[in-house]
Amino acid sequence: xxxxxPAHAARAAASYKVDVEATPRSLRKLxxxxxxxxxxxxxPDISDDQFEFLITATPQQVRDLxxxxxxxxxxxxTDVRTVDNTKHVTVSVDPGPQSTISSISLSxxxxxxxxxxxxxxxxxxxFSLHExxxxxxxxxxxAKNASLKALQARRYLDAKIYHSEARVDPRTHEAKLSVVxxxxxxxxxxxxxxxxxxRYPEQIVENVNPISVGDIYDVQRITELQRxxxxxxxxxxxxxxxxxxxxxxxxxxxxxxVSEYPYNSIRGGVGYxxxxxxxxxxxxxxxxxxxxxxxxTVDGRLxxxxxxxxIQLAMPPGPRAWTNSxxxxxxxxxxxxTRIYKYQxxxxxxxxxxxxxxxxxxxxxxxxxxAGSERRCADxxxxxxxxxxxxxxxxxxxxxxxxxxxxxCGGRLRGEGRTHRSDVYPRLRARPAVFAHRQGRPRGxxxxxGRRVHERHSGVxxxxxxxxxxxxxxxxxxxx
Length: 480
Fold this sequence. Notes:
By secondary structure, the protein is α+β, with helices and mostly antiparallel strands. 20% of the residues lie in helices and 37% in strands. The protein has helices spanning 4-14, 25-34, 36-39, 48-68, 112-115, 117-126, 137-152, 203-207, 219-231; strands at 16-21, 75-83, 86-94, 100-109, 160-169, 174-182, 189-195, 235-242, 252-260, 264-273, 277-289, 294-303, 306-314, 322-333, 338-349, 355-365, 367-368, 374-375, 384-390, 456-457, 460-461, 471-479. The strands form six sheets. A nine-stranded antiparallel β-sheet has the order 19-16-15-14-13-12-11-10-22, with no helix packed on it. Strands 1-3-2 form a three-stranded mixed β-sheet. The chain has a three-stranded mixed β-sheet with strand order 4-6-5. It is extended. The relative contact order is 0.07.
């Protein structure tokens, strides 16, 4: 006990507090995080000798850290005071002027000079520093790496920095930067080397592969392959690696490692929105129907306005990533007293953002009778039409107030209304789809929430209005 008392007292006397005074704030934060005198301040086991060593080393550490921010002539003052047996250390730093970049030299070696000058220009454009900018080590490293990454993005997978130098004159506070890049040989891509496929056919990976043997290496093509695989329902994660051996640049293997989803998955959720009230939604999928990796999906949604159900059976992606499927759905909308039956046999292509399909769409309007009973309109029997569209937006029928619905069929809506067709209960006819842009939204179909729109159908203009909806959902997902 007697021996432990003085040691404990020595440890207590060696505890201290540190205050760093420096501008700008970024420099003060850097010093607070990396100075040894600040990092060890909370340790109770610092001896007096160790404390003296930390005080002595502080000025040089400040100069080294300030240099990374472009301050090469800082003035450092260290003050140590003892108050109530606790040491207080104040580190004051006057960083001086920050160095600026006076010149930048980027040069290249290797086949890039003759094979692909555009790639050289892309690397130059990616260099983020310019003459007159403030110099810092972090920005200097980021600029070099960004330029190198741009050079490696196409053809020159094994490109590297051959030489780099930053010369700073402390008297003039000017920095001269120079970088030399070595491109290396042009790489071409070979066959896929897949791994991790246990449940589903490996041919799926080949069918969605947009890369041909002999194609010039391009990181965008690699990213497209990864996106293609993740767009299928089979794979939870995809990792792609390309060999970068400069001795074997021709037909270098592309290694694809996938992690598969189990056959069964179920999702369910509950939520609430101010427009539709409470809702319940769920989905079940089985990815190996008939033992041939055909995805089968059942999903539905139930809220106070709309009840929706859908069944879909699809085939695995075939050659050129085309996927055939059959879909049937049923929708009941309470607002417009309309039932919609829909049957589709889509043919999707994972390599594009569009979906081409044939659709059978039946709309069954129901009119309220005098005593609240329902009756179908004799002049508007359910019609069916075949439509060929590209990525169609869901047909959304505006609500019509009940008191303004005509009792006879085919009447026009008089007074104020929110319909965008001359007929209150229009029949669906076979018609070509006209698209507003390449994403495939038909003209006249409004975008959702928070945007003022102007619709026009059959010479009747819609009332522009704003819609704001709040809601929350809770989802639970399980795979087995």
